[in-house]
Amino acid sequence: MAYAAFRSIGAYAPEKILTNQELSEMVDTSDEWIVKRTGIKERRIAAKDETTSDMGVKAAALAIERSGIEKKDIDMLICATISPDYFCMPSTATIISSKLGLNNVTAFDISAACTGFVYILSIAKAFIEAGMKKNILIVGAEKLSAITDYTDRGTCILFGDGAGAAIISATEDKSEAIIDIHTGADGTFADLLMTPNGGSGSAHDSLDQEASSCFMQMKGNETFKVAVRTLTKDVVDILQTNNIKSEDINHFVPHQANYRIIKAVGDALAMKEEQVVLTVAKYGNTSGASIPMAINEVYESGDLKAGELMLLDAFGGGLTWGSALVPFSPLK
Ligand code: COA
Known about the structure:
It is a single chain. By secondary structure, the chain is an alpha/beta fold. It has one domain: Thiolase/Chalcone synthase (Peroxisomal Thiolase, Chain A, domain 1), CATH 3.40.47. 31% of the residues lie in helices and 23% in strands. It has helices at residues 20-24, 31-38, 52-67, 92-100, 116-129, 153-156, 220-241, 259-268, 280-283, 290-300, and strands spanning 3-12, 16-19, 42-45, 76-80, 106-110, 135-143, 161-171, 180-185, 193-194, 217-218, 251-254, 309-316, 320-327. The strands form four sheets. A five-stranded mixed β-sheet has the order 1-7-6-4-5, sandwiched between helices. It has a four-stranded mixed β-sheet with strand order 8-13-12-11, with helices on both faces. Bound molecules: coenzyme A. The site of coenzyme A (COA) has 20 residues, from helix 2, helix 6, helix 7 and strand 12.
């Protein structure tokens, strides 16, 4: 039986920093309010001509280099994004594959908002366990600044740009395997977080460019409450199902949406501060890129060791959610 191993991580954050102070000159807000309610101090913003695929390529190149796996052996590429280079086609995954010179891949995007990385991890695991693919590149990449309304203080303070990527490959050694992944969705909460214009469900004339802009809209407070409730249940569930205790987790890597959500879920699991990975202060919410960017921070700080166990959890528009128990298993 083939198992799926999490071999490597890479990430990229654009150079330009957008601070809370700068946002307070654009909308009616303050550094104090943003830090107190979200924990975010700054976020990165891609250059005007820098696309989601450009960022995905940089993160992916690092993940490939660190994996020790050759490009020619990568047989699938999945990209999680809600800010693709082009809204209908081609997929951002196919653009990334061509920029990286990967000529032998099945490539496609998925849309699960901030849960995107956990979803693509679960798809990669399933393809490998089914014996259909051997080395899968998964990429979470977002240029959220392209779909953010910088006149709406309820959303523009939260989001940033960036990318993260990982290589998942087949192994026969069960001790290296991703242990479990839970994913879920409930479309009855679809209106909490959405881009209402521009699609076939849009009330606007598709020729009316202004009305059909794809800006995000969010009912923040309701989203916050559902996020805490759903995430807490989900992470407790995945630990219990697998008979794993909180203290067995080396790195709890939550989706970086809001420090208060992370704290509430961490407290429910009795996680110690040193177990919880936090990047929300410097990158804000980068949706599908947030978890791999956070894993990369731990990796680059030298604190992610072979065999250590990560607990991932995510929540996002859809609504969607997911959690995963993932040992870090670089090639020996
Ligand atoms: N600066 C100053 N005041 C702001 C503000 C801002 N950026 N955004 C909202 N406010 C105001 C509101 O207008 C409201 O004012 P009022 O009381 O006069 O009506 C007040 O602050 C409280 O608004 P509320 O929306 O209840 O605040 P909150 O504590 O829920 O914080 C969020 C707002 C967006 C930070 C918070 O709800 C949140 O993080 N939600 C989850 C978002 C998220 O994670 N989304 C992605 C899921 S992946």
